[in-house]
Design goal:
This protein is mainly beta. It is built from 2 helices and 7 strands, in the order βββββββαα.
Length: 108
């Protein structure tokens, strides 16, 4: 979520002469902010939100399979991109969604 409290205006007297819009700056706190607007009076607007904050994101994913945990513990390992594995906790591995993937048929 985009947080308005992470947007602030810096007065012109505190702004370096070489500043430009979309420039990344380091704040005293160590965080990074983006110069989003330079006002006519020389003051600037800084936004310390993540660049994707408040944006709608969509992903295309491909589930390539599940691998049961060999050690007898609860859960499953999901195999994904480049052979990377992700452990899925037992409560999730027994969910209706997980069960559907084990026997992939269209629900009726």
């Amino acid at each position: 979520a985009h947080r308005p409290d992470l947007v602030r205006t810096v007065q012109a007297a505190e702004v370096p002469k070489d500043v430009r819009e979309q420039m990344q700056v380091r704040l005293d706190s160590g965080d990074t902010a983006t110069v989003t607007k330079i006002h006519a009076d020389g003051s600037v607007e800084l936004d310390a939100n993540h660049p994707l904050a408040g944006k709608a994101l969509s992903f295309d994913i491909e589930l390539v399979g599940f691998k049961e945990e060999a050690s007898g513990g609860s859960g499953v390992e999901m195999v994904g991109w480049s052979g990377q594995t992700v452990h899925i906790a037992g409560g999730l591995s027994n969910s209706p969604v997980s069960q559907q993937f084990r026997s992939p048929t269209w629900p009726t």
